[in-house]
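Quick start: what a row looks like.
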Amino acid sequence: MYTLLKKEGAARRGTYSTPHGTIQMPAFMNVATAGAIKGAVSALDLKEVHCQVQLCNTYHLHLRPGDQQVRKLGGLHQFTQWQGPILTDSGGFQVFSLAKLRNIKEEGVTFASHIDGHKIFMGPEESMQIQSHLGSTIAMAFDECMQNPAEYDYAKHSVARTTRWLYRCKTEMNRLNALPNTINPQQLLWGINQGSVYDDLRIEHMKQIAELDLPGYAIGGLAVGESADVMYHILEVLNPYLPKDKPRYLMGVGTPANILEGVRRGVDIFDCVMPTRNARHGHAFTTEGIRNLMNAKYELDEHPLEDGCQCPACQHFTRAYIHHLLKAGEMLGMRLMVLHNLYFYNTLLEKIRTALDNGCFEQFYRENIEAVSTRI
């Protein structure tokens, strides 16, 4: 259940109660695609970096090790040893982005595995069954994620099919949750708003799916080719039509600036691979801007990645040492960078929540929006 505690403009401060704990919102979800954060970071590390929610990938876990195997091992919480909330995406985005060969029909999508090319079919029922086997806290509905810009007529037909798929997802989720041997009989289904970059399609789709009174709603199909200004415009257009008493999830977004702008437009929860992917390539997010630790100027730099930072990397190691590790190709360098960036993202959201609590989010936004995007 979502509880709205406070608002400042469109920005919202709330909590969301789940079977695996309460999420303080706005929040950032830490992406553990195959059940682990890339960069040798385990569930046991996540509390140290102030993680609230772990996001795992339905498509990847279905292919390897297999959702049936995860089910036999007690579900994702037991398998990964993360006991807090877990969100699983539906697999739709990966089907449409990774699969070279795919055939979309009303029943679902037939596609070739990106690992070995074998044929797989996934529709709304299959996605719900896989996510039920994984036992996540929140399961995302199966939808089609279009590339932007999509042709208007194609987007219109795709949105209508995504709506029909959502009804099937809800029916199947209700059936699965009622089974006696379901790992998580309280699994929550969140719907996804689509409509490419077309205001009327976005609004009409949001109206339609809001009628299902689901526990949460996501805004999908953004940050996939359109400009940031277009994304912000869609958020503003949707704001009046998003249920006030449900969490709002902007999928796959984004940079620290995107998060500040998203919160300002009413978004409650975000996820993105950026903090971990950029970390593995030597880019550290800080309150002063982005540092590239591969640069030679850090060879003799004895400061931590960020002065005053309390993350596991900054408490013990210098920029010079991490620069050396990255240059030498040592996994520890990537691990320390990932820990720092996740800590930065999670504590950025903590600061946003505190600013909302104190009624000074707009001031916080103005003081930080330029700095977080600066390259040092």
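That is the whole record. The mean pLDDT is 95. The radius of gyration is 20 Å.
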